């Protein structure tokens, strides 16, 4: 994988209890691409998988979806995601941007339904597509200097 010196490259994680949706920015940070839906095993293996992708894709920073309630308050999932983000920062020594992920899974689900995907097919792709949605929002905000 090649990269442009001095340009950030982002890996985005949609962190769930069972799966982590993963997306990556293109080398110019113009758009996001789904990478995979990783099925969680344990903390050590999960961190190793993310670390391997960081190396493989020449990642300079992580973007992690932060699941908050619709009113913006923290939920149990928020606390779980923050714990995982903390471990990522400790392990990978990279900047991690935690961003609001409200509605990302719903948007991904709607997209897959519109494409005529079956329930089983949607289950395979919804998490990586949600990560793509989160990352696209982040990249757009970055272009508008909101981040």
Structural class: alpha/beta
Which ranges are low-confidence, i.e. pLDDT below 50, for 5 or more consecutive residues?
Answer: none
CA-based shape: globular
SSE succession: EEEHEHEHH
The total strand number stands at 5
What composes the largest sheet? Answer: 5 strands, mixed
**Approximately how much beta-strand content do the residues carry?**
15-25%
Strand order of the largest sheet: 3-2-1-4-5
The CATH first-level class comes to Alpha Beta
Number of domains: 1
The radius of gyration is: 15 Å
Number of helices: 4
Helical coverage, percent range: 40-55%
CATH homologous superfamily designation = YqgF/RNase H-like domain
| Overall pLDDT confidence | 87
CATH architecture: 2-Layer Sandwich
Distance between the termini: 26 Å
Please name the CATH topology.
Nucleotidyltransferase, domain 5
What report would you give on this structure?
There is one protein chain. The protein has helices at residues 43-56, 76-92, 104-114, 119-143; strands at residues 10-15, 19-25, 32-39, 61-66, 95-100. It has 147 residues and is of the alpha/beta class. The protein has one domain: YqgF/RNase H-like domain (Nucleotidyltransferase, domain 5), CATH 3.30.420.140. It has a five-stranded mixed sheet with strand order 3-2-1-4-5, with helices on both faces. The chain is globular and about 40 Å long. The mean pLDDT is 87.
